[in-house]
Amino acid sequence: MKQDVSINSETNSFIQSSEFNRFGLITVVILIIGCMGGIAVGMGAIDYVASLAAIVFPTMITLSLVLSVSPMKWILTGTAACVVIDLIIILYFLIS
Question: Is 58 within 8 Å of 20 (Cβ atoms)?
Fold first, then answer.
C-alpha cells in the first residue's frame, strides 16, 4: 500500500513540475508531434485516407489542447497517444 502512495506522489510531483515548466514542454510537444506526424505522412500515409485521418485527428486534438491552455496532464496524454499512433503507422509503412 505504501508503494501506491509513493507512485501517486511521484505522479503528482511530475504533473506539478510540468505545469511549472508549461512553456518549455509545449515547445517540445509541438516539435515532437509535428515531426513525427510529418514523417508518418511522408512514409506513405498520404495515399490512404484512413491512415491519414488516424494521424491528423489526434494531432489536431492535441494541438487544440495546447492552444486552449488545457491542463498539462491532458496535453501530455494526447502527446503520448499521438506518438504511439505515429510510431505504429511509421512501422507499418516501413514493413510494407
Answer: no
Query: What is the span of the domain harbouring residue 10?
Result: 2-95
The dihedral through the CA atoms of 22, 27, 28, 29 has a sign that is positive
Residue 90 grid cell: 511509421
Residue 60 and residue 78 in contact, taking contact as beta carbons nearer than 8 Å: no
In this prediction, residue 7 has a pLDDT band, given cuts at 50, 70 and 90, of low
The C-alpha atoms of residue 81 and residue 79 are separated, in whole angstroms, by: 5
Domain tally, the chain: 1
Query: What gap in Å lies between CA 47 and CA 63, rounded to an integer?
Result: 23
Closest CA relative to residue 83, chosen from 50, 65, 59: 59
- pTM confidence score: 0.83
The CA–CA distances, whole Å, from 80 to 4, 9, 49, 83 equal: 23, 21, 22, 5
pLDDT reading at 89 higher than 70: yes
